[in-house]
């Protein structure tokens, strides 16, 4: 792997995709408003859950806002990088243009996962950070270096898991050709990430931490943020992230063996 | 004679679209699965005893969310996405020549898809009853009939709103971002995630004037046997349809004059 070459290629990707996205300026503006409204909507929903007894799953409203903040950041990352690229895989496979990707002298997974970027997700990431800063204030969290680095590690692991989940589903396109709706299923499951894992019943908790570790993705970093997480949970998240990343890589290479190009 | 012709047209359209939809059964099954968010919400509600504050029993709440799932299944509209694709690809041009408004085609597509989705929705409901056997109930025929009508009216409202947005394609080329913006209030205010009764007073004071509670909350309350104002709800639904239809007609006739036939 030649790191410098890849960085250079990525710079070019950034440049071209930003240029093409900025052509639809009103679109970006509308997306920004959508991001703000969606954050307001989810805080509104959360406030409904808390209006009766002030606790859900042992979390207070102020604490649950942290989950919301981390969810917003992750959602922004999904909208900026994962969604535009990985929905493109479906198109590549349907139209047979994956051939061109495979012929290029760079890694195919790198190419299809990072080629495009959609700037409208940036605001969501920023909104999430603002919410987190606000949460630090209202929860009176003392910042120190070990705590911040642990937070960063868990969030990076969450991003890895999220990416692997998206990539995994998009890869199945090679067999099923149309997986638009499979990503919709993933999206609706991801919705669960807005709420603390403990607020669900036992069976759903098992389902969302063992089969599709979605609640995992936001709950553990939030616990780290609050300073109430145990070490084993952090370790578990790191291990899960590593497993997911390596499996998704292997799965992609395996799936490519079954790729028969369209129209050629 | 004329009605006979219309009947024949509608039946042919429906038959064609139904067989088209049957080809993508898996996709439609996945779509049905992606609608199960209400069940996760139900889990949060019952698992944290949040329903005590709004005086709805567990059983009634689970019926409400099951009905919300059903209403959502049969009122989902995606005409913006089809129309945007067709208009960007220039496929709208041949439709315009035909002596039938192209929106009838999309309308038939939606109906055909609902028919295809019906068995999958029943299977999901069956599983729901296995896990919640106490919530089984049989609505009486009159209520069932009324709620089917109000679900259909809710579908019509959403279809009209989306058709109006879709017509904006004639001006902006990309209307899906406006649709995403409209989806946010639909998601949070329609009662899909939390029944409208549970909303705080300052929201309830104006929300019943907007179309949102009539999209899911009203039909779901009606079907599940929760307390609701039947005649008032139906009147509001019809009023919104009567308001939206002329807007759609106007924007359609303006738009077709602007149409530039992209891709030809």
From TrEMBL, chain A:
Listed Pfam families: ABC2_membrane_6
Keywords: Membrane, Transmembrane, Transmembrane helix
UniProt cross-references to InterPro entries, sorted A to Z: ABC-2_transporter-like
Taxonomy, superkingdom: Bacteria
Protein name: Conserved membrane protein, multidrug efflux associated
Spans through the membrane: 28-50, 117-135, 147-169, 202-222, 234-255
UniProtKB/TrEMBL annotation, chain B:
Transmembrane residue ranges: 28-46, 61-81, 115-131, 143-169, 181-199, 230-248
Record keywords: Membrane, Transmembrane, Transmembrane helix
Keyword Membrane in record: yes
InterPro entries, per database record: ABC-2_transporter-like
Source species, domain of life: Bacteria
Record carries keyword Nucleus: no
The protein, known as: Putative multidrug efflux ABC transporter
Organism of derivation: Prochlorococcus marinus (strain MIT 9312)
